[in-house]
Structure formats: C-alpha cells, structure tokens
Amino acid sequence: MCFSKAGTSIRGKKKKGKTLHMDNTTINKARRYAIFDCGDDKVEKYISEHQTLMESFRGSKWARAQNHSNDFIKWFEKKVMTDDAIDDHIA
User: Fold this and answer.
1) Contact residues for 73 (Cβ-Cβ < 8 A; gap 6+)
2) Is the pTM of the predicted complex or chain greater than 0.85?
3) Residue 45 has pLDDT above 60, yes or no
C-alpha cells in the first residue's frame, strides 16, 4: 500500500478541532511530494512512463524536468482513472 501508516496531523495533537486551510498551490505541492516520495514500485513505473513522455518534448533538460514535475499529477489522475490494471491501493 502506498500510504499504509497513519501519522499525526499537520497542526499537531494539541490543536485538535482547528482547521488548517491551504491554498491550491500548497495542496498541489503536498500531493506532488506525497506521490513522488511514496516509494511504491507501481507508482514509480508511472513516474518513469511520464518522464519518458516528457523527453519527447523540445526544450532544455531543466524545462522537461519542470514540465514533468508540474504536469505529472494531472496526467497520473487521468491515467489511474482510465487504466484497468490499476490496483485499488493506488486509485
């Protein structure tokens, strides 16, 4: 499972009941961090597939890396929703 262990909230144990609001940029960064760093072999295959796709585009290596980082989450969501071979723990 990609995220099998539960941790403590961002706000900590002492601040129960208070909501932490994040803007879309922060939410997207958190999602990207979680997906890229989950360590799941099946997710890693999708990361590699998207990197290969990005290599076909023009631009510097830096620009392709930026595009991969910025575009991967949306691409991954679409891929997961349309791929019949996805395990339940990824979807």
Assistant:
1) 28, 31, 32, 35
2) no
3) yes
